[in-house]
């Protein structure tokens, strides 16, 4: 088994922490070798607020993934999210000294470095710079400027900003768990890779990832990321509302939401009652399912309306920015009954539930194909892609440097559920060491994103080492 073709993604969420080990099989599908998950303790709304508890949860998920796969995890690619994330649009340009020379990577990097010097609010740092469209000497709508002539190189950028302290806290948790941080990926982008097709990104689509503590939004149009946002509400606030409204404990409220909850009150009749066991000798508590749905409905409407406000802020009502492919819902909150119909009713946009099964191998279990694991699957996919491209560059190190563009849409793939998946991965006897590699030789957008992330990861590592 090729070491470079194996990667580990770590999704540090508010509700759960997932460690996923995967590789690409001979058909180009993602084969999950092992998965570990633990209850997330010490994370609130995507932000670490208790280092010790977060480390323990990470170690538990890592250990379970290692036991399921037979592999030893050395480093991981981690998803970055949380309520501290925000995005801005920015346009910048450079004037080239010699317009008679073709535009190269160094010109684009010079432009990127210029954007990275933008002044941010105190405590904030740029963590993601995503070029959208380039303009050369007034000629607009250029997606790949390398190899063209021009004196003035201009580009619009989608800049993602976050709190530096929050990201360093994540790095500290990873390092203290005994593993290395090999890369960072914005979680909405990872989820988008797992559940969206290239055709949807071209047509225009809004991905809504409803997690436990936050709801992440990523908007694509013409194959380019146009807008990202993090709403500081998720499934946990729905559970809290049920707990308060029905006067029950949190564990019972979560079970009620999962088993009997609905985002559409009209589906339940007045005489539908569920009985909840009383606490320590007390009488059972009877709860009307219609009232339960009303509580859930009120909070889900609030979340969806906030997300829709972000979609309007992007400019969805402009015919040129119209999202033809509508909305894709993913994350654990997407499993709530009738949420698809409610989102369609509020937004008037076509909606579907996003499953990561399109990219998974046929022997993947039904659990892994759930929207719950979309982010983890996307993180593994990103890490494998980076590792593969790094290997390509290493092979071509003695050749003339060249830029390779990859704009081919992935083929539509299907999956089949196989029950004894766990028994198969446990058949591996000897533990092996996984070591992912960093990105190189990528398309213009991906290359810029990864090169900056690599530098940012190094910066975090230096900060952690000096803080010892």
Automatic annotation (TrEMBL):
Top-rank taxon of the source lineage equals: Bacteria
Extract the InterPro entries matched here: ATPase_NBD (IPR043129), Cell_div_FtsA (IPR020823), FtsA/MreB (IPR050696), SHS2_FtsA (IPR003494)
What SUPFAM superfamilies is this protein classified in? Actin-like ATPase domain
Biological process, per Gene Ontology? FtsZ-dependent cytokinesis
Q: How does it sit in the membrane?
A: Peripheral membrane protein
The membrane spanning regions, by residue number, are none
> Cross-referenced Pfam families, in alphabetical order?
FtsA, SHS2_FTSA
Annotated family: Belongs to the FtsA/MreB family.
What is its biological role? Cell division protein that is involved in the assembly of the Z ring. May serve as a membrane anchor for the Z ring.
Subunit structure comment from the entry: Self-interacts. Interacts with FtsZ.
According to UniProt, the name of this protein is Cell division protein FtsA
Q: Which organism is it from?
A: Flavobacterium defluvii
